[in-house]
Amino acid sequence: MSSNPAILLLIGTLLGNPLPAAGATPADSWQHLADEVVETGLADALPGIGVVIFADARPAAIATSWEQTTPFRWGSITKTLTALAALRLHELGQLKLDTPVRSYLPAGVVNNPWAATRPLTTRQLLEQSAGLPDLSREEWNSNQPLPLWQALERRNTRLLWPPGLQHSYSNVSPGLTAAVIEQATGRKFADVLHDQVLKPLGMSRASLKPLPGLPGGFQADGSTPIPYWHMTFTAFGALNAPLPELARLLQMLLQHGRIDEQQYIQAASLAAVFSPGQTLGARQGLQVGYGAGLYSWISAGHQFWGHGGDADGYRSRFGLLPDVGRGYLIAINADRPALLRQLQRRLERALTADLTRPQVPLRYQHDSLEHYTGDYYPASARFNVAAWQTGDAPGATVTAAGDELRFRRGTRSTRLIAVGPGRFRRASDPAVTVVFASDRDGVLYLQGELGNYLKSDHCPGFIPPCHQ
């Protein structure tokens, strides 16, 4: 592959690493994997693709069809950098993550019906547990760059459920995080991001604005261009940066906050990044979820941490195994999510092939599982909020089958194996991935990899169908 002029191999040049010694089998193996993934993508009519593989907490191989300095649109991976900006300000004493955001934001910016007892905090914005739905159709379709506060003024930021209760992904939360950062520092969010994240990480060409040389994003055919999307809130997805520069972010995460032999951020602060947050489920033992800028998932029997990105024709993903210092970063510039998932799975299988699989948690014998059985209704709504509020969102059922539960949604059935009181895993999961937990009012929630649900026989006031 190295003879193919369309592919620029940058072995060892990334971040100034020395070239691997001749015959270095591990490095050769990682480079072969990166080359293979890029070749597969190009053979499937991708206009462009780039891959970086990490081993021993450092870049081990890179293969890309772009020049080293070519910028790329990273979409929602921007959220990781937005979270880092807030964490850095917290370390500096300029922003308190657990102080209610009403201490920073003008009155009326956030409408929290539970403010008296459940105030919204910046930490909850970072962990995507604020109680917000996602952008409206109008906001998604808008392609007009707006100043942050003008973008906030045109939407209703009313919380739909108590903050901190459950994870629900929303592109509004980073917009509010940017507003908190601006109010706390008296500076523009883009300037704070540059000074607290981009500059210290050595991302000198990175920007939230369009950069010269972007290769363009394309529809699934790989040839029909998609116009540049000016996102409602730049803090959720507007980052543009070359592949090697974003790789520095991953190296810092794998090196427990260090970069270029300097401690960029304290390892204790990164604990909030590699954790499932502070939702009701997480407090009851859920081990997979969304932390402060990263989320986790189970693949090939291992728990990865990372993030994905989608910027209208640009798609990307990174996954990290922090305990062993391995990971990957992949980017394509065509709207081919299925192909990206296929390549992602190939990378994840290869990165874990020689690792011992973590033991799955042992079974736990409940006296009875009947407490968890019954009909369940979604406890949150990212989109189609109107249907959710009128009771038209599809529900689920939980039944007992011997010493296991069965979660059924439509035609899909999932086995749930108990590993502790209220804690469950799917058949091969090496961690607690589903939790049943009751809140202070006795409402039973199901949270985790299957989504957010609540048992329909005892519903909270924020779901109108429960009271019809």
Task: Supply database-style keywords.
alpha+beta, Beta-lactamase, Lipocalin, eight-stranded antiparallel β-barrel, 21% strand
TL;DR?
The chain has 468 residues and is of the alpha+beta class. It has 13 helices and 21 strands. The chain has two domains: 72-352, DD-peptidase/beta-lactamase superfamily (Beta-lactamase); 370-467, Lipocalin, CATH 2.40.128.
Explain this structure to me?
The protein is α+β, with helices and mostly antiparallel strands. The protein folds into two domains: 72-352, Beta-lactamase; 370-467, Lipocalin (Beta Barrel), CATH 2.40.128. Helix content is 25%, strand content 21%. It is built from 13 helices and 21 strands. The protein has helices spanning 25-43, 78-91, 122-126, 137-141, 148-153, 172-185, 189-198, 234-237, 243-254, 267-270, 280-283, 337-352, 385-389, and strands at residues 8-9, 49-55, 58-64, 71-73, 217-218, 225-226, 240-242, 258-259, 262-263, 295-299, 302-310, 315-321, 326-332, 374-378, 396-401, 404-409, 412-420, 423-425, 434-438, 444-448, 453-455. An eight-stranded antiparallel β-barrel has the order 14-15-16-17-18-19-20-21. Strands 1-3-2-13-12-11-10 form a seven-stranded antiparallel β-sheet, sandwiched between helices. Strand 5 (217-218) and strand 6 (225-226) form a beta hairpin. The longest helix is centred in the first third of the chain and has 19 residues, at 25-43. The chain starts with 7 loop residues before the first strand and ends in a 13-residue tail after the last strand. Mean pLDDT is 92; it is low at 1-25.
